[in-house]
Amino acid sequence: MALRSLLRSSVVSAGRAIQSTSAASLRYFGKAVDGSIGLSEEQKEFQAMAKDFADNELLPFAEEWDQKEVFPVEAMRKGAELGFGGIYTSVENGGSGLGRVDAAVIFEALATADPSTTAYISIHNMCCWMLDNYASDDLAQAYLPSLTSMDTFASYCLTEPNAGSDAASLKTKAVKDGDDYVLNGSKAFISGGGDSDVYLVMCRTGGEGPKGISCLLVEKDTPGLSFGAKERKLGWNSQPTRMVMFDDVRVPKSRMLGKEGDGFKIAMAGLDGGRINIAACSLGGAAASVDIAKEYLATRKQFGTSLNNFQHLQFKFADMVTNLTASRLMVREAARQLELKTSTATLQCAMAKQFATDSCFNVSVQNHEG
After folding, report:
1. Burial state string for 84-120 with b = 16 or more CB within 10 A and e = fewer than 16
2. Which residues of the chain have pLDDT under 50?
C-alpha cells in the first residue's frame, strides 16, 4: 500500500509538472504570433497605426456591415486620411509612396478587424497603382487625387462569365469610332460593382490572345453602363459584388491606360500586387483567430483545468501558429521581391497567395470547429 501511494503521488506530481511546462510552452509559442517581428521601426509604426484604426473604426461595426450589407464609405474615407487610399501610389499623385512590404503589413493589420472591407480597400489601391504607373499624366492627375482621398472609389474589371483563370480569352470588345472607343460586353464578380465611381476595364481592341487586350477607364455615369443584381454571398458583404455590363458605352481614347495592346500586361502587373494584398487580408483574419484561440485556451476550463493544459489542443494551437507564421514569411518575401522587381517576383506572389489563403483559411476553421 505504501508503494502504491508513493507511485500514485509520483505520477500526480509528474503530471502537474508536465501540465505546468506545457502551459508555459503554449504561452511561449504564442509569442510567435507577434506580427511586428522582423519589421523596421517605421513599419512597426505603420502597423500600430493601422491596427489602432482597425480596432476603433472597423471592428465595432464589421458585424453590422456584413449583416446589413453596408458599403462603409465614411469609414474608408477616414482611413484615407491616414494614407490608406493610395498606400503604394506615388506622393506626386496623392498617394503615400510606401513600399509593397509596408502595404502588406498595413493590410494585415486592417484585416484583423474586417477582412472584407480591407480586401476592397486593397483592390482600390491596386487600381490607383495602375493609374499611377500606366495612365498619362493628364489622366492620372484628373482621377488620382479624388481616388487616393477616397472621395471616389475604383473597381478592377477583368473576369467575365466565360473568362476567369483564362483571362486572355476575354470577349468584352472596344471598337474605335472617331475620338472614342465603343465598348460592349460584360464583367462578372466585380468588387465594388455598382458603388464604385471608376472602372478599369480590360477589353479587346485587337485580335485574339493577350496582345489584343487594352485597358480603358470608364466612369460610372457613362450612358450604356449598367449593373446586375448584388450577388448573394455567405459573408464578405461589406463590399458589393455585381456584374458590370456595357452596351455601346462610349469611352474617350484619352482614357486608355498605356497604349493599345498593353491591357493584359497592365492587368497582370496589377494582380502581382493584388495577390500579395489578398494574402495579407488572409493573414489578418488568421492572426485574429489565433489571438481568440489563445485567450480561449487560457480562460476556458474543463475537468478542473484550463484547456491550454490539454496536449491535443496544444498541438492544434501549434499548427495554427506555424501556418500563420509560414504564411506571413511567404507574403512578406513575395512583397520584397516585387518591390525589387526580381525575375521570380510574379511566381513568388502567386505562391504566397495560394499558400497563405489556403493555410489561413484552415487556421480560422481550426479555431471555430466543434
Report:
1. bbbbbbbeebbbbbbbbbbbbbbbbbbbbbbbbbbbb
2. 1-21, 370
